[in-house]
Amino acid sequence: MTSKALDINALRAQFPILDQQVNGKPLVYLDNGATTQKPVAVLDALQNYYRGVNSNVHRGAHYLSDEATGQFEGARQTVADFLNASREEILWTKGTTESINIVAQCVAREQLQPGDEVLIATSEHHANIVPWQQACLAKGATLKVIPLHDDCSLDLDAFDQLLSEKTKIFAIGHASNALGTLNPVKEMVAKAKAVGSITLVDGAQAVAHFPVDVQDLGVDFYAFSGHKLFAPTGIGVLYGRRDLLEAMPPYQTGGEMIEVVTFEKSTWNQLPYKFEAGTPNIAGAIGLAAAINWLDNQDRAALEAHENALLARATEQAQAFGGLKIIGTAASKVSVLSFLLDGGHPADVGMLLDKQGVAVRTGHHCTMPLMDSLGIPGTVRASFSIYNTLDEVDRLFEALEKVKTFL
Ligand code: C6P
């Protein structure tokens, strides 16, 4: 049930973009899995930074540079607290994709041997497939894939069978972007660690929905993107366990990541800077910290309950809607409803919804192997966030009624 404590109108007022007409209808933004909207607190933080502070970090012998450095490193501490990590273990990246690529390049390509295995799931986003696949191809290792049950939950018996001492890396999505399925990552990580595997969780679709504690999960690496957490695009995070980061070679080389450079050789800066070559996305990091601080000031339990109520209403309506098939009916899900409409190609359904002001994503959702395994070309995906309303869920289904008539 939606928590009574949640004042949804006051919450929505903090997201000015929501208050607009699209194609002559009030916007219903249900594409939050792709990117979330940004609250005024984040927009203001970006403006304040560029209006009053803008300067390069860790370099200048002047006031603004000190100020920018303080805010930038403060932002790192905010992220560390958010994940229950230490600040040296928080690396700034462009997003989840780059975070996973760092581990694929600096761990997988360094350590994999012929015969080794990397274990992922059928439901992974391409960002958590292709980097491992390419590392396996380069090193003669094998990519193993956990299948799904009919409800699109992971087949955990198959996971137990696939996991072995050959498994050197286990990389799993916390929640599936295409299906919403929430995976039991803590239990899986513990099992993978018991066979000596390095573990990574792709948290792109998790962090905006519920609190994450990397110590509690026991995971070695955790990746997420700022833009799916009410923050700007172009900023993301890789959490890495300190001893693993210490042992890894740098990802990119250049300024900032070095300690001493001569023409003959270079030595590396301490963590986390060893992994941050070049001028970082300073405003992005400050914007991400503003988003986290803003979120921390909300009643997260109430937000979670509200999202669950949105998903429950959407699922109920979808089940009652003739000719609609839900794709992904696992018991444990984040607020994502993927579906197919009889006789309607997802792209056409999406376009007809857009004409009515309803924004969804259609297609393979960067999960082509998942779509292949389900034998479908793609889905229509409505992905809900904290500022969506039960009325908007109803608007989606009213709009779908019209789509059905049209089709
Ligand atoms: N999913 C979606 O509409 P980036 O692009 O690096 O910020 O995030 C990549 C990524 C990785 N893992 C998961 C589970 C994801 O959902 C995404 C991004 C968006 O579903 C865009 S494809």
Automatic annotation (TrEMBL):
It holds the Pfam family Aminotran_5. It comes from the Bacteria. Keywords: Pyridoxal phosphate, Transferase. One of its GO terms (biological process) is cysteine metabolic process. One of its GO terms (molecular function) is pyridoxal phosphate binding. Residues 28-396 form the Aminotransferase class V domain. It catalyses: (sulfur carrier)-H + L-cysteine = (sulfur carrier)-SH + L-alanine. Its cofactor is pyridoxal 5'-phosphate. The keyword Acetylation does not apply. It is an enzyme of class 2 (transferase). Catalyzes the removal of elemental sulfur and selenium atoms from L-cysteine, L-cystine, L-selenocysteine, and L-selenocystine to produce L-alanine. PANTHER family: CYSTEINE DESULFURASE, CYSTEINE DESULFURASE 1, CHLOROPLASTIC. This is Cysteine desulfurase.
